[in-house]
Structure formats: C-alpha cells, structure tokens
Design a protein that fits this description.
Helices cover 49% and strands 14% of the residues. The protein is of the alpha/beta class.
Length: 452
C-alpha cells in the first residue's frame, strides 16, 4: 500500500505541475520570469543536475547573457579552480596573452577536463569577450572567476610568481614555507593521508603565515609596483587563501565526507564574498554575480538529506546571509545522455541516463510536460504540492547507472531548496573539446537528435 499511495501522490503532483508550471517553447522569452525575479537580486545561482549535460550548460549560458546585458551583472563565478578561471577572466577582459577562447581555456587540464573544456563553455567565453569588446569606453567589463580549491600546487606557483615581481625577499620566505609540501609530490591527497595518519606534521602554520603576510603587505605592494594590473594583487592574495583552505580540505578528506565537503563549500562562499567586495572596490558600485555550479552546491542544503548528514553548501550559506537577495535556480532531466566517467580519473564517456525513479521529482516533471519552468518562490500551489520530500537525482563527473539509487539520489524538499526549477525531459551529453574514441562511440538515445 505505501508504494501505491506514493505513486498516486506523484500522479496528483504531476497534474498540478501541468496546470501551474510555465510550459517552455524554446524561445528567448522562456526565461523572462527569471530575469524579472533577478532584477532585485545580488546573486543568481544557476545549478545543473549533472556536470555533463549540454542543455544545462547552454541554457544557463543564455540566461547569464541576459543577466549581463539587461541587468548589468558583473560576471560569472563558476565551480572551477581559481587560477584556471582567472586566465579566462584575463582573456574576456581583453588582457594580453591568449588569442582565442580555446587558448584561454587551456588551463583546464586536470580531471574532469570536459567540465570546462567543452563546446558550450567555449561558445560562452567567446561571447563574453565579444560583449566586453563592444562596451562603450569606461564601462566595466564582465568577468569569469573560479570558486573551487583543487589547485593547491598551481596556486602556490602563482603566489611565488607574483612575489618574485613585487618583493623577491618575500618570495624567498614563501618558497621556504611552501617547501613543507615538497616531499609529498604533486598529489595533495598523499599529504592529507600522511598527516591524518600521524606520519607527518601538518603544513597549516606555514600556509596561514603566508596568507597573513600577504594580507598585511598588500597595500604596500599595490603602491610600490606599477608593472602589474591592479587585479593581480587580489588574484595573488586569493591564491594564498586557496592554499590555506586546500590544506584544510585535504586533511579533512580522511576524516569523512561531511568535513571535506563543508571546507570546500565554505571556501566557495568566502571566495564569492571577497570577489564581490573586490569588484565593488574596483568598479565603484555594487557588484552582482551569476554563479554556476552543481545543484548539490547551489540548492539550499538545509532542505535536503545532506543536512541530516552534517553537510552544508554554498546555496545555504548564500541564502542565510543574503536571503531573497539571492535567486536559486535548479535544473532537472528525466533521461537522455550525459558525459561522465565510470570512476575518478577515468576517460570521459557518453552514457545513457536512466529514466527517473517512480517516486522522484524527475518522474513528477516527466509526466507534467517536456519543458517546464516552476516558480517556487511565488506560486503557493506549486510550493504546497511539491513540498513533500521526494527523491532527487544528482549526477556529478562520475555516473554509475547500476547503483543509481544509492549513488545518485537523495531526498529534498524542492520549494525550500530552489526558487525556480527548470525541467528538460530529454537532454544530451555535453561535447568535450578533446573527444576521445571512447566518448565518440558512446551511447545515443534511440531518437537522437530529434528527441521525438
């Protein structure tokens, strides 16, 4: 009986969603409601239900273009490493260096390479550069920034490169401090394992001391040196902050998922807040940013099973500090294809996405329509019918269809998790810029490319 009742509830929810949701046509005006809701927002967080779906990348790119063009947003902050994204930022703002968008994305070589080196990001970065190039003199260009912390060694190198220019003696001290990591090689997980097992002393005092020195000396370095762009000082200090937080993260990895997850999302929130302050100082006006990351980072974790496991996330922290000044937008899909790997570090494959489970939000939306926009902030009828906790799917860079229920589903209360939910029933895999034979021979839906 419980199973029959659950299915009946799902059918009722689908009926209400069919009546109350906006059925999308594929035209630009599909997102007018999101633009209107974003007019008073400081942050617009746009998620994705997988890290390998073309539709999510393309559509959030189209929404972001409108936010930049029509509402004057200052740029986009993404679930990517700070130094790699800052290279893209320099390109889109017209700084010397890379000659095209493909070159500018060249820093994204670490697994999962396809997450940012894909055709949709390439198109968006090219658009952002063109947009900035056509701005009137004196207008503030839109930027592209990274929020993540996996680039510990690259960030240490960036700190040293900066200090070699502004203060060689400070660079010598930084090299001595960062040498603490030298005998662990290039894999920071080896460092985290050794410290967690008591085989080595932590490098925490060294990385904290380095960040504190850079914070104290920042004003003097900015005044002293005229050879670097003004944002180089902020870029370097953020790299030092990333090294400090990454050191915590890799130690936390061996204490449990919740500890490392929380360190990572707190770092992303801290980076977003400091970036906003930097842009406000640089531009002389309040900065407004779009954020791209997975649904599991951007939906309010307090409304999900994650909270019961002791996890918080970026969306929860933003919601807590900024309330309705932040607009949280999620994506979902029922079936199609996805670019993902079988395991961490494995080659990218094009895989079939299994249909959503019966008692899931994905199934409710599948039965309601092929393309939907649900305003969960203002539509009380939708809020009421979708408020009961249901299963929600999350596919990251790894997809394991055989253990999908255990590996990729968790329970959530959608109206408290997101302000807007966009559902596209059948989606296709994002195209990596480096397409391997394994990806090319991957699975296609029987109806691809018509989806009929």
């Amino acid at each position: 009986m419980p199973k029959i009742r659950a299915l009946s509830d799902a059918a009722h929810a689908s009926h209400i969603v069919t009546q109350e949701a906006r059925h999308l046509s594929g035209e630009p005006h599909d997102f007018d409601r999101i633009i209107e809701m974003a007019r008073e927002s400081r942050y617009v967080l746009i998620g994705e239900a997988s890290h390998g779906t073309h539709d999510f990348y393309h559509l959030r790119g189209e929404i972001t273009k409108r936010l930049i063009r029509e509402l004057g947003f200052s740029g986009v902050a993404v679930e990517a490493d700070w130094p790699d994204a800052f290279r893209v930022n320099r390109f889109v703002r017209g700084a010397p260096g890379d000659h095209d968008a493909d070159e500018a994305l060249g820093g994204f070589q670490r697994f999962p390479q396809w997450m940012w080196r894909n055709a949709d990001v390439l198109d968006f970065v090219g658009w952002l550069r063109s947009h900035n190039d056509t701005l009137p003199a004196g207008a503030d260009p839109a930027g592209f920034y990274g929020l993540d912390l996996y680039s510990m060694h690259a960030s240490m190198a960036a700190v040293l490169e900066y200090l070699d220019v502004v203060d060689p003696e400070a660079a010598r001290r930084a090299r001595h401090r960062y040498a603490c990591f030298d005998h662990f090689g290039e894999d920071p997980q080896e460092y985290g394992f050794a410290v967690s097992r008591g085989m080595s002393e932590p490098c925490e005092p060294e990385v904290v001391a380095q960040l504190v020195e850079m914070q104290r000396a920042a004003a003097a370095w900015v005044q002293r040196d005229g050879r670097l762009p003004t944002d180089a000082h902020f870029f370097a200090q953020q790299n030092a902050r990333l090294v400090r937080n990454a050191e915590q993260y890799y130690r936390a990895m061996f204490r449990g998922r919740a500890d490392s997850w929380n360190v990572r999302d707190r770092h992303m929130f801290e980076t977003l807040r400091l970036l906003t302050e930097h842009l406000r100082s640089e531009q002389g006006r309040d900065a407004r940013l779009v954020v791209w990351a997975h649904n599991s980072h951007l939906g309010n974790a307090a409304a999900t099973e994650m909270s019961e496991m002791g996890e918080l996330n970026l969306g929860q922290l933003v919601r807590h500090d900024f309330g309705n000044d932040a607009l949280l937008v999620g994506f979902s899909t029922y079936t199609g294809t996805v670019t993902a790997a079988n395991d961490w570090g494995s080659p990218a494959e094009r895989m079939m996405v299994r249909p959503g489970l019966p008692d899931s939000y994905e199934r409710v939306f599948h039965d309601a329509g092929p393309r939907l926009l649900m305003d969960l902030r203002h539509n009380e009828v939708l809020r009421d019918v979708l408020d009961e906790p249901r299963l929600q799917r999350a596919i990251g860079v790894i997809y394991r269809p055989r253990t999908e229920r255990m590996s990729h589903y968790f329970r959530a209360r959608l109206p408290e998790q997101f302000d807007v939910m966009l559902h596209y029933d059948q989606t296709r895999a994002v195209e990596p810029l480096e397409r391997t034979g394994l990806w090319d021979k991957g699975e296609l839906p029987e109806t691809y490319p018509t989806a009929l």
